[in-house]
UniProtKB/TrEMBL annotation:
GO terms for molecular function: monoacylglycerol lipase activity. GO terms for biological process: acylglycerol catabolic process. It comes from freshwater metagenome. This is Unannotated protein. The lineage of its organism: unclassified sequences, metagenomes, ecological metagenomes. InterPro entries: AB_hydrolase_1, AB_hydrolase_fold, AB_hydrolase_sf. GO terms for cellular component: membrane. Gene3D superfamilies: alpha/beta hydrolase. Residues 35-278 form the AB hydrolase-1 domain.
């Protein structure tokens, strides 16, 4: 979409069931044909989706929100980080911002994909009929730490286990002088060979901008995660996107999701690391649009 024609984003505040305030933005053409809801990963925020917010509103209402403890959303209280809490946040955003007459596709990257697995379990008894599909990008259903360390060189695995993970799980601010080392580790672990300097800079900035206590709590949550039973309840058409150079959620994680999710198809992107929506935005956007744009007979009838 041309910058001159692109509508300005509209900012929203949504309240989660436990009272956590969620910040969201939406961008819409005059007559959207469908809706896409974007859910980012751990230590990211709405700016992570900037290429989707720029490109997809040609014909789609695009909604993105900061997950609890991230970006401009509120930090949850004690016990406020769980799979069900993340799922409830997705549910709250969909209920508040998605027009029920438009076919809707939920898109999750990394921990955002995990939140959508939780949403599948939470919403199973009474799923909104306009939610027609899901896109899972660079994500995993369980064993995120052991899965990552099994597919990287031993020396790099040692750096991850001894250096990066303890720092990430600590509620203390990152040391001011740690920026170059952190950027290097992110480049090694999260990026593929074709990443741009802009992609790396944005990823590092968003990680460093996450509140230390939120960052620590979420990394502890992910280390103990098992969302496989939730993923098995995702009975909607599901597109799974993986990067062939993803060291954090490698190919084995994507194929495991195929085993769990009844109606899933896999797309692998060459030379792409963990940050697919940044590194391979053109291909990712193409796959999102294919999943989200309905045929004429798919329109949701008015109640």
């Amino acid at each position: 979409m041309s910058t001159l024609l692109r509508p300005d984003p509209v900012h929203h505040e949504v309240m989660a069931p436990d009272g956590t305030r969620l910040h969201a933005v939406s961008v819409s053409p005059r007559a959207p044909r469908g809706v896409v809801v974007l859910v980012h990963g751990v230590t990211m925020a709405i700016p992570f989706w900037h290429r989707q917010l720029e490109d997809l509103p040609d014909d789609l209402l695009v909604i993105a929100f900061d997950q609890r403890g991230h970006g401009m959303s509120g930090r949850p209280g004690p016990g406020g980080i769980s799979l069900d809490a993340l799922a409830a946040d997705v549910e709250a955003v969909v209920d508040a911002l998605v027009p029920p007459s438009l076919p809707t596709t939920l898109v999750g990257h990394s921990m955002g994909g995990i939140a959508l697995m939780g949403w599948a379990a939470r919403s199973a008894p009474c799923r909104p009929p306009n939610v027609r599909g899901v896109v899972l990008i660079n994500t995993v259903a369980s064993q995120i730490v052991s899965g990552a360390t099994a597919f990287i060189p031993p020396r790099l695995a040692a750096v991850l286990m001894v250096g990066l993970l303890p720092a990430a799980r600590s509620p203390l601010p990152l040391a001011p002088g740690s920026a170059p080392a952190l950027t290097g580790l992110i480049d090694l672990l999260a990026m593929g060979p074709d990443r741009s300097r802009e992609d790396l800079t944005l990823t590092t900035r968003l990680l460093r901008g996450t509140h230390p206590r939120s960052r620590a709590a979420f990394f502890r949550f992910l280390a103990e995660l098992d969302a496989e039973s939730a993923a098995a309840q995702l009975d909607l058409p599901t597109v799974v996107i993986g990067g062939r150079c993803d060291r954090i959620t490698p190919l084995a994680a994507a194929t495991r999701i195929l085993d769990l999710v009844p109606h899933a198809e896999l797309h692998l992107i060459d030379r792409c690391g963990h940050q697919g929506p940044l590194e391979a935005s053109h291909r990712v956007n193409e796959l999102i649009r294919q999943a989200a744009l309905p045929s004429s007979h798919d329109l949701v009838p008015s109640a």
